[in-house]
Amino acid sequence: MTAHPTTPLVVVAHGSRDPRTPGTVRALLDRVRALRPGLPVHLGHIELNAPLLPDTLAGLHARGAGSAVLVPLLLSRGHHVTRDIPEAAADTPLHARVAAPLGPHPLLVDALHARLTEAGWRAPADEAARRTSAVVLAAAGSRSPGSGRDTARTAGLLAERLGVPVVPAYASAAAPTVPDALRALAARGRHRVAVASCFTAPGRFATKCAAASPWITAAPLGTHPALVRLLLHRYDQARTAPAPAPTRYGRTPAVTVCP
């Protein structure tokens, strides 16, 4: 694919039955457009909401686009990032690059930290308070080992920022759950525990994790400026990555998945 500054950006959201989610995602894309005027920004969903990703890609091709950069609005690697999105891209005539997910990355940690602070988190005042404090990083969960590693890395980066333990926990498909993580921390004498929401928008999983919180719970990341910058960073990374090597038949792959 020939990189070009106006190569369309396709933000790939998961989709949700929660009516608040689509509006949050659209508002996020509006902020991306405001930060990068002139960049064509489109939305495609993996499931549940329109437009679905194949329809978005088909529309781009029908309007004469020859290429696109797909940025997953997802916070770790998993089946959607490694299989569903590349397969959808491969089913179109577009030359597509699939960017890395949004996490782990320091900009993601910036957004998580800011949302915790907005919810009322303050650094422990002394060593005694530090020994009783912790954070649970609540994420969607996946059976993919790569997803778990990414979430654990994000938790580690957030722990470095906060100076207290940060334990990853999940709403589904992985362990521990948020209640289990809270109980384990309480057994270690950590009772001042906040929940950081590693979710891009409101939805069933974010609500479920917030309901288990004994204290403050951060809001989902939503339209935080750091998330906007991170989407564009992943776009730029993928757009300017070296072209893939030709296959043994001399063809250049139509879909490039960026690490």
Descriptive notes:
- The chain has 259 residues and is an alpha/beta fold.
- It has 2 domains: 9-103 and 224-257, Rossmann fold, CATH 3.40.50; 106-211, Rossmann fold (3-Layer(aba) Sandwich).
- It is 42% helix and 16% strand.
- It contains 9 helices and 8 strands.
- Strand 1, helix 1 (20-35) and strand 2 form a beta-alpha-beta unit.
- The protein is elongated and about 60 Å long.
Which features does this protein show?
259 residues; Rossmann fold; 3-stranded parallel sheet; alpha/beta; 9 helices
Approximately how much helix is present in the residues?
40-55%
Task: State mean pLDDT (0 to 100 scale).
Answer: 92
Query: What would CATH call the class of the largest domain?
Result: Alpha Beta
Uncertain segments are none
Main sheet characteristics: 5 strands, parallel
Kindly report the CATH topology of the largest domain.
Rossmann fold
Short description:
The chain is α/β, with parallel strands linked by helices. The protein has nine helices and eight strands. It starts with 8 loop residues before the first strand and ends with a strand.
Question: What is the strand and helix layout of this fold?
Answer:
Elements: E1 9-13, H1 20-35, E2 41-45, H2 53-62, E3 67-72, H3 79-90, E4 95-98, H4 106-119, H5 127-131, E5 133-139, H6 145-162, E6 166-170, H7 178-187, E7 192-197, H8 204-211, H9 225-239, E8 255-257
Helix pairs in contact: 1-9, 4-6, 4-9
